[in-house]
């Protein structure tokens, strides 16, 4: 097995955690707008998975009316 990390021309996508950790009735964090599943999987996600998650986060944030950024 190799210790070579995946190389991407795009910058690393950092966690959107805002330290406002509180889940709504649908188990989505009101701070970062990620689901519990997305939060717990974040450290294992590849770049493309993080991009897709961030797209869903943006959609949830807009739909919620709680724009934090």
Order of helices and strands: HH
Q: How large a portion of the residues is in β-strands, by DSSP E? A: under 5%
Whole-number total of structural domains: 1
Based on CA inertia axes, which overall geometry fits? Answer: globular
Task: Output mean pLDDT.
Answer: 89
Q: C-alpha Rg, in Å?
A: 13 Å
Uncertain runs are none
Overall structural class, as computed from helix and strand content, comes to mainly alpha
Distance between the termini: 40 Å
- Can you count the beta strands? 0
In helices, the fraction of residues equals: 25-40%
Largest sheet, described in full?
none
What is the oligomeric state here?
single chain
Features:
69 residues; mainly alpha
Polypeptide structure, described:
The structure is a single chain. The chain has 69 residues and is an all-alpha fold. It is built from 2 helices and no strands. The protein starts with 35 loop residues before the first helix and ends in a 5-residue tail after the last helix.
What is the compact description of this entry?
With about 70 residues, this protein is mainly α.
Topology:
Elements: H1 36-41, H2 47-64
């Amino acid at each position: 097995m190799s210790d070579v990390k995946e190389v991407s021309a795009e910058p690393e996508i950092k966690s959107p955690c805002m330290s406002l950790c509180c889940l709504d009735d649908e188990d989505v964090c009101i701070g970062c707008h990620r689901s519990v599943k997305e939060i717990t999987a974040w450290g294992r996600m590849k770049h493309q998975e993080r991009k897709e998650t961030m797209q869903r986060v943006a959609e949830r944030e807009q739909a919620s009316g709680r724009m934090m950024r």
